[in-house]
Amino acid sequence: MTISPTLHKYLAAENIAYDEIPHVRTMSSTHSAQACHVSGDRLAKAIVLRRDGGYMLAVLPASHHLRLEDLRARFGDDIALAAESEIDRLFADCAHGAVPAAGICYGLDVIVDDSIEMQPDVYIEAGDHETLLHLGREQFARLTANALRGRISAHD
């Protein structure tokens, strides 16, 4: 498996340019960044959240941790991490745990941490554990154009 079919179709339809970066199999965004010799500040990891009976995707640097209390202050106390079974169902064409930071093509609302948008370029998971996609700042901005923005994470 390489890039997920849903993500590939969306990027092609929106004419969003990217480079595929193959790497050794890893099981976390931090390890993917290390394998590709990329700063964790430039790799956007995606965390699936349950909210109001639906789901949303939080996008933040791999070098950060999600501040769930900030999200609860913004969206209400019913926001929580989604269960792995829910994530697998939402991202059925992705490998287990390899969620791309591209919720729009999966019908999810997205919130992007402000710090990731300051980077000159951004890397995202492709939907497997062996490929990253490299996008320029403008391409990443197009991918997340309809996303909410805010400070939702803190550096580890």
Question: Layout of SSEs?
Answer:
Elements (H helix, E strand, L loop, with lengths): L4 H9 L5 E4 L6 H7 L7 E9 L2 E8 L2 E3 L1 H8 L4 E2 L2 H7 L18 E5 L7 E5 L5 E6 H7 L4 E3 L2 E3 L1
Parallel strand pairs: 2-7, 3-6, 6-9
Antiparallel strand pairs: 1-8, 2-3, 2-5, 4-10, 7-8
Q: Can you describe this structure?
A:
The chain is α/β, with parallel strands linked by helices and 156 residues long. It has a single domain (5-155), classed as YbaK/aminoacyl-tRNA synthetase-associated domain (YbaK protein, Alpha-Beta Complex), CATH 3.90.960. Helices cover 24% and strands 31% of the residues. The chain contains five helices and ten strands; from the N terminus they run αβαβββαβαβββαββ. The chain has helices at 5-13, 29-35, 68-75, 84-90, 137-143; strands at 19-22, 43-51, 54-61, 64-66, 80-81, 109-113, 121-125, 131-136, 148-150, 153-155. Strands 1, 2, 3, 5, 6, 7, 8 and 9 form an eight-stranded mixed β-sheet that branches. It has a two-stranded antiparallel sheet with strand order 4-10. The longest helix has 9 residues, at 5-13. It starts with a helix and ends with a strand. 35% of the residues are buried. The model has no long low-confidence stretch (mean pLDDT 95). InterPro entries: YbaK/aa-tRNA-synt-asso_dom_sf, YbaK/aa-tRNA-synth-assoc-dom. Pfam families: tRNA_edit (PF04073). This is YbaK/EbsC family protein.
